[in-house]
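Journal club prep — side note

Before the paper discussion, L.F. wants everyone to see what a predicted structure for a comparable chain looks like in token form. Sequence:
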Amino acid sequence: MRSASQSASLPPPYGGWDAKNALVDMPPENAIILDNWFPGTDKVTLRRGHKAHATGMTGNVDTLLSYSSIAGVNSLFAANGANIYNVSAVGAVGAAVVTSLSNAQFQQVQIGTAGGQFLFAVNGANTPILYDGTTWSTASITGPTPGNLIWCNLHQRRLWFGEKDSLTAWYLPVNSISGTAAQFSLAAVSSLGGYIMAMGTWTRDGGAGTDDVAVFLTSEGEAIIYSGTDPSSASTWSLVGVFRLGRPIGRRCMIKAGADLVMITQDGFVAGSSVLSMDRSQTQKVALSEQINKAVNDAQRNYGSLYGWQPIIYPGAAMMIFNVPQSSTAYHQYVFNTITGAPCRFTGLNARCWGMKGDAIFFGGTDGTVYQFDTDSDDNGSYIKGDALQAFSYFGSSGINKAFKLVEPIFESSGDPNPAIDLNTDFTIRPASSSPVPSGSVDVSKWGVSHWGIDKWASAGRIYRGWRGVRGHGRSASLRVRVDSLTARPSWISTSFIFTRGGPI
């Protein structure tokens, strides 16, 4: 007797990219591959694209410098080669605003004083530079060797900075951008040696104030923490502790994330609130990147010495982006939903550095161009390529063979997603068998558009669904969905399967 067909549905991989769990143990809402599909709370959506913003430079754009005036006017500058250009406006850049630089790899901070708002930037080779909203100048600082300053931070209204290859930090008086810097050595408390890689501020009580602590991260992975407001007084400045982490990756290895401090280390992407009170052996278990730590660890082992590692938070899309170099000319991004924590990977964004101008996000390329991200539906005229491979599922019966006949991935989209689909069975991942058809516009409906769902399911897009024939025999199955988009931005919201059951194994 022929077995009757059965149906089952699976959620989209909104749980995110999973490089941690074995294929047999992976939760059904996770994904073995999740490239350019951003996980939401109940669906995955193809990311937006990028477009050229500022052109006319040559070679690598190594730093994007952001400035906000008291009046709320936002400016963006690009460090490229020996120069800095104003790239606030769209189009070809004008004359350089700063010239004769030794390198374009800056660290930056903005500080407010009685004289206004100032952008302060250091590169470990030139005297620190200042921008006051109108004029660029060099900082007048005595104490350290100005040209050796390579990191900076604003902590408790004081500007802190440090020289390369040194365990000595320097700080200025409160609300100052120039003058004589005081020296603060960490040599006596750093048992592993090395040098200060970066400094950050960790807000332990959830709001800026006197409880904020200073975190000095050394090249050897020691996080040295001090509390207080005045380093010159033992009564107002004290050592909290010295904690072991993985070695930091790159100078841009820290970012303030709300009240927390997120760091890029050999143990993954870690938050201060989770790791600065435990043994290093437990760090990877609580890392933000715990679900993809294998991929993070592989990347830092292969490419940790390359320039381009950088975290940035993009509130407008609920994204925390970690730029990950793949070579000196190619880059990926490991991206997390800041609401759910679910990760994915972005490809096709060849970003060497990132920066914000107000609420908009930009990246610098290797081709002398600054690009704006999260715009339009294409990658500067090229297809956005989405690739997702769901976790394998037994469909409720791990010991029963199944013959898979039909699948129906369901999308919400502004245009026909025209996906290419492949069915994999029993934890064998085969190469993709076909290429996606480029997505159509809103008026092109070649693949199973369902008009009954338009009003109830979506206000900005249609519901696209349609059964596809597949062949596959096994106890478990996983669907791979790929799209090439120039115009549409599909969201994958569900998948249905039809199969017949065989006998037990």
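L.F.'s comment for the group: The two ends are 18 Å apart (CA to CA). Keep this in mind when we get to the figures.
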